[in-house]
């Protein structure tokens, strides 16, 4: 693919979804994660290992940055903790953030794939076609969230990754990836597919709650919601709507309110909203909305 | 005790008729598209006769397995379609109900069972890893007999014969049985077995259980484990109770916590956590208060004193007990500022009901009981007893009630072993060689027992010292009943059933082993029961009416297994009202020891706990939530103290106390008192398996043997140490980025003040 071809036919390669002629219909899978409920316990991450055949790489490879956790918990301290003139103790706790593929609508990873191994599905998931992937790792380099994981080794044949008996736990609904391919969170596409097929057999659409992702199902505080964004009855739809977060905008009501406030204006409208998407300004149009963590002001 | 009587079969019949009717009404019928009864028959008891295809470890490729098509398949068996069985998670004692996904005869994943009041469909990371316990490559596969320094695989017949031989002529007093917490029919059978030779030496041991809390609660409320309604509280003031991590029933509390955050009457709950080392719960607090180690009780009394000063009526004895604890003194002793105490007091007065919790951080001192009593007093002063501290329902069959463990039991056992009192030692669901403080010299004392039998899943440190190792079925292969210590809502009995065929032919369920052993003593009483399953089924059917089964035996049993939970009308405990505060006294904080200036806090990680699950690789690779470190131990040290000592991240430091030293990598952690360091428990195995052995250090080994004065429990936080650099340095293997967990001005994980949002208007 030449650069001139890419530039001339830009709109064919990079869509801002949903585009007018191909709207999301009947499905657009999306998530919302309430950071005020999330306790950072890591149950989601382990559930993801169990569901999606993620290899345990061991200490040495982990040290080399080869960990394969599609779902990871990021832990942040406030900026002024343990700094010169800052606070000595994190007296408002830590900030936890479950981070996985944000299933961007205008995914930065998709446009750089030389072989089209990563694609957008009609229901809005950023898919990875393992047997098309040649391992260029451009997508990983271009992902602002750092949620793509590369198989530097052939884990199925690596010692102690899935030794005898352990391999019997592998989920037959999910491919076991070999050396040289990229992988990432799929929004548990295998579960979505089952739900879609079941619904189709019954001549209906998937209802909210028919499908849960593995992380959502495990989450002890129910911080994760997952569902069909175009279904007005789905919790995810209602959450996004209440938070005035729209899929195809790059600045939400809340962002505008904050910018307005920083510019000296009022913070009236949108001031009490919590919903935001990470790196909105990069315009990847993520499918995951986070709800800000709340901390009590009276104590 | 009446020798030979099978007590469990008789006793429950005494249940009142009125209760039976209520129970019968509450029975919920289960509907399934296929014939569940047939289904369960197949999985449960056909044993080897009924094949669930795909089991076994041979494969078609290597010719050890042949492909045989079904002439007539069972109607539920459809290749590629999963079936689900309910059971109970055995990764910890909280008693979460699980649903196993089984496909082609293999269990693939565990989910929470939504019908359980304890976990309501949720699981923790530890629970998720239950499949790795089952499929673990390092499980013991045959009975092993030690001859000299080597082990030899023997048959079960030989193993039982050997036990019979060794027990011959040995009196009940000369036998000791060590176990972890047990409940349900396993407890009944174990009790009956020990009775059969007059043995009263059952030591129930938990290395990191809330034993001081139980004793303190018994005094404060009249019951050991009341219900804590976090979801009904507007303020939770927790003194080191890591209820989102590893405390009592974390999955249950996590759900309550989510409701608490959404708010009672539209008001979002406020969490204040007081501790010397930040736990996962502390990291989620609205206000995290670092206190000088061991002064938690002083702060509690200071808060009571301040509440009194702010117009809360205190009874005479309480007023007298808190008299000396004015803000200035408390602030000086604890390190918590007077303004902060004022803010807490104002909040507690304004927002009721609140809830005050005592955690292991407050318990772990020589004055742990007094600390806990002082903190529990706050609940009384704030009027929380009866509101957020409520009586729990109790399963009305005392024989099945859980026997909970403690460390005082280990000490008694250890003293007995040291004195050469025991000729035969049994150990089940405990690993004292790993978890006993090195100074107790448990391995040496254990060696004094003539014959040591260890029931084991893995060759752990204790099994390595055994004369006979008996391999156990995994929790996903075994039958059982379990009664959780912490009851969420109504009382429930949990059912454990196999989720697939056994992986290894020569492992046995603990119930089956006990049954075989008891048959050596009381063959006549138990001859009707071919195996533990038969025993369990007979026991439950005998008790059917009391358990809500009005229907015929088969229907009752099928439904019971299908649900995995029996909800029973529990008897309600009564909480005692006012407790006198007379006699409550707290020691003034000790001066810093010049030789060993730092307090060692052995921390309990939600996944690794006391180290029994460290050989499950998902847990090794699951980052510690606070430090994000994997596969290794670390020494948490406050950045200020580290700067003082010239320590940077990754420095290998030597931590030395009176009872030994260990070396581990330093991690600079702002959530710890500068006069304390913390090392997580659970790692540092010398055995157990490929994923555990050789990773990290074991802080149990260097603990000082200080005990709580009232309960005799090991005071886990009383060890004093010094830290020195060794000169070598490593790169810490962790998930955290190179800037040490800062967002560098980016808007990634965002926080907002509570007065800026309207949670009640949210979806």
In short:
The complex is a heterodimer of chains A (299) and B (763). With 299 residues, chain A is an alpha+beta fold.
What can you see in these coordinates?
The complex is a heterodimer of chains A (about 300) and B (about 775). Chain A has helices at about 5-10, 10-15, 45-50, 60-65, 110, 140, 190-200, 215-220, 235-240, 255-260; strands at about 30-35, 70-75, 95-100, 120, 125-130, 150, 180-185, 225-230, 275, 290, 295. Chain A has ten helices and eleven strands. Chain A has one domain. Helix content of chain A is about 25%, strand content about 15%. The longest helix of chain A is centred in the middle third of the chain and has 13 residues, at about 190-200. Chain B has about 775 residues and is α/β, with parallel strands linked by helices. Chain B folds into four domains: about 5-135 and about 480-505 and about 545-570, no CATH class; about 145-205 and about 405-470, 3-Layer(aba) Sandwich (Rossmann fold); about 210-395, Dimethylsulfoxide Reductase, domain 2; about 600-730, Barwin-like endoglucanases, CATH 2.40.40.20. Chain B is about 30% helix and about 20% strand. Chain B is built from 25 helices and 28 strands. In chain B, a hairpin with a 2-residue loop joins strand 2 and strand 3. The radius of gyration of chain B is 27 Å and the shape is globular. In chain B, about 55% of the residues are buried. Residues about 1-60 of chain B have low confidence and may be disordered. Chains A and B meet through helix 3, helix 4, strand 2, strand 3 and helix 8 of A and strand 3, helix 4, helix 9, strand 10 and helix 10 of B. Strand 11 (about 295) of chain A pairs parallel with strand 28 of chain B, so a sheet runs across the interface.
